[in-house]
From TrEMBL:
Keywords: Membrane, Transmembrane, Transmembrane helix. It comes from the Bacteria. It comes from Clostridium muellerianum. The chain crosses the membrane at residues 414-432. InterPro entries: 6-blade_b-propeller_TolB-like, Quinoprot_gluc/sorb_DH_b-prop. This is Glucose / Sorbosone dehydrogenase.
Length: 435
């Protein structure tokens, strides 16, 4: 009797150990929590696994996926076959798009085209000033045009010790895509001016001539003619963009932070409609408000001053949405085909709260899905639903309309293993009882 009891206890201990090992090494806690009970039924599934360190993705008309990594692009065919199209240590890919049997992608200071039919790569845009704080261009294609983001080199126009890249690029600074005039304000111990290299003073009335391409701007490239121009400027850093059903360009824009020689307290992230030829205010306005307003505070809660003498307008466009925090919005996609129920609803990922949020264009934000872990880096819609790339865990999720079920293969695996363990345990226990 004592011997059988010992065997049962030993078996129970082994079962606990097996469950612990399975949960730790096989089961990933990918439960999604629906935070808005008013949202229509959705279903969740995993399209592909094993995509760790992927930075972006796109897909073609046949349903083939193209997964971009830092130095290579992988194709996953609709049949399931997968291989790398190309690799190069010289690449630093950030964003990728498919159009007419070609792949277009951004890498450092260039935009490249990869011809799928003849397996050739060539650059179509060069000399993008991507060397500062926001040096990863995002590209999106609409019609025969590529829209290219160029981020600011600094937080608020002035280089300081917060700009670690200055050690490798001591003469770099923000480049203006249009002519601007400076007030001559200088900051810090070394009296560094706006739009100047580190430790270089600015002068009152100093004119900064336009340069193409410039920082804090959106470029537009004509795929038919090869012509390229500045579409809009004064945009600090775009973290995601997409188009509505009527062709409006929607962009998530990061607000200024409380750091550097010209710190800005009180700013947040925003969503804008980006219109051609508009100036959006950076570095003297954010969210449509001047940095001199009570909304913002500088060092030691001081009032912030303008660095530009004359502004293209004293009433730059206001955002269509203001987020609650700064440096939090990462990636954005617009449901322009109404696949999840609300036409032109904007979905974005909050990296601080690990939430996928939905903004319908008016009213308050809707929190759709809470992530327990991972690092979402890209959102895009296909004909069926919203695709979500998690580069940390290596999963490409799909969210579609349907019954509220969680179809994650990672979860089904643990249930199968636990069922096997339970069945084996029952068989062994029955054997012990017979003995």
């Amino acid at each position: 009797m004592v011997k059988n009891l010992f065997k049962i206890l030993l078996l129970f201990f082994c079962m606990i150990l097996i469950i612990f090992v399975l949960k730790k090494y096989y089961y990933k806690d990918y439960d999604f929590k629906n935070l808005n009970m008013n949202i229509k039924e959705l279903k969740y599934s995993i399209e592909y696994k094993g995509l760790k360190s992927a930075v972006d993705f796109t897909l073609d008309e046949q349903g083939n996926y193209y997964i971009a990594y830092k130095d290579k692009v992988q194709i996953i065919k609709d049949s399931g076959k997968s291989y790398y199209l190309f690799k190069s240590n010289d690449l630093n890919i950030n964003s990728i798009e498919y159009f007419n049997n070609k792949l277009y992608f951004s890498s450092d200071t260039k935009i490249y085209c990869y011809d799928i039919n003849n397996n050739k790569i060539f650059d179509i845009v060069r000399d993008i000033p991507n060397y500062g704080d926001y040096k990863n261009s995002i590209i999106r294609i609409k019609g025969n045009y590529i829209y290219i983001t160029v981020g600011a080199a600094t937080n608020s126009g002035v280089i300081g010790e917060d700009n670690k890249w200055v050690k490798e690029n001591p003469y770099a600074h923000d480049i203006s895509p249009k002519d601007i005039t400076l007030k001559g304000l200088n900051f810090g111990e070394f009296k560094t001016g706006a739009y100047q290299s580190y430790k270089t003073k600015s002068l009152e009335g100093q004119i900064i001539p336009q340069h193409f391409p410039g920082n804090s701007s959106v470029l537009i490239y004509n795929l038919n003619t090869g012509n390229i121009e500045t579409m809009a400027w004064g945009i600090r850093n775009i973290t995601g963009m997409d188009f509505t059903s009527d062709g409006k360009l929607i962009a998530a824009v990061g607000g200024m932070e409380n750091r550097g020689l010209r710190p800005i307290k009180g700013d947040t992230d925003y969503i804008y409609e980006i219109k051609k030829k508009n100036w959006y205010g950076w570095p003297d306005y954010s969210g449509g408000d001047p940095v001199t307003s009570p909304k913002f505070k500088g060092k030691s809660s001081s009032t912030i001053q303008f660095v530009l003498e004359n502004h293209p307008t004293t009433n730059p466009p206001a955002p269509i949405y203001q987020h609650k925090t700064v440096s939090s919005i990462k990636s954005l996609a617009v449901d322009n085909n109404e696949v999840l129920g609300i036409k032109n609803a904007m979905y974005f990922y909050d990296i601080i709260n690990k939430e996928l949020c939905r903004f319908n264009g008016t009213g308050s934000i809707k929190d759709n899905i809470k992530f327990n872990k991972g690092d979402v880096c890209s959102l895009k819609f296909n004909k069926k639903g919203l695709l979500i790339l998690d580069q940390k865990e290596g999963y490409l999720y799909s969210i579609e309309k349907g019954n509220v079920t969680n179809n994650f293969k990672a979860e089904r695996k643990i249930y199968i293993y636990l069922l096997i363990v339970a069945v084996m345990s029952i068989i062994i226990l029955l054997k012990f009882q017979k003995d």
